[in-house]
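Sequence, please.
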């Protein structure tokens, strides 16, 4: 009998769903082009459904071993009732079963990569999925992007994120409302 190989799984299906949303797809592809291959935006965090089928089992194991390892983790404890010594002992027992991977450290410079696309070429055109509820002949998305601050300044980045949410996100936001009303 003939066997058919099917690509599936929870993460693969979730990523297919996430990137089938036109807004999510457009933002993801925009960031990949705008920031280039040296930034964290060059990859899709859960895996790109176009690339997942190309991954070999060996590549998957190597990727998991490098990035999903306690050497890359931060452990945070909180609360007044935590017995510090008991928790530190438990953490030491748990983490001692893993070998250190300091030689495979992650290049954090990718977190702070500047946009790779020169300002002289500000236009990016991306084709992607359409909104199934809209008229296909009348669908265009426009994204305007500004480099506002150094992403290492977390206080400023957080404040700007809140400001953007207040100004742009949802029907009550002033820019959203003005666009819809016009």
């Amino acid at each position: 009998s003939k066997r058919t190989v099917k690509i599936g799984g929870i993460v693969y299906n979730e990523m297919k769903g996430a990137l089938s949303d036109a807004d999510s797809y457009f933002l993801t592809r925009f960031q990949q082009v705008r920031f280039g291959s040296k930034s964290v935006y060059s990859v899709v965090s859960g895996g790109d459904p176009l690339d997942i089928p190309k991954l070999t089992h060996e590549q998957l194991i190597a990727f998991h071993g490098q990035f999903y390892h306690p050497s890359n983790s931060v452990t945070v404890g909180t609360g007044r009732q935590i017995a510090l010594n008991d928790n530190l002992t438990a953490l030491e027992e748990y983490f001692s079963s893993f070998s250190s991977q300091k030689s495979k450290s992650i290049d954090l410079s990718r977190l702070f990569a500047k946009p790779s696309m020169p300002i002289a070429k500000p236009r990016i055109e991306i084709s992607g999925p359409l909104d199934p509820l809209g008229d296909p002949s009348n669908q265009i998305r426009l994204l305007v992007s500004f480099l506002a601050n150094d992403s290492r300044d977390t206080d400023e980045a957080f404040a700007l994120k809140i400001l953007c949410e207040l100004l742009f996100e949802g029907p009550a936001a002033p820019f959203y409302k003005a666009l819809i009303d016009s």
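The chain is about 40% helix and 0% strand.
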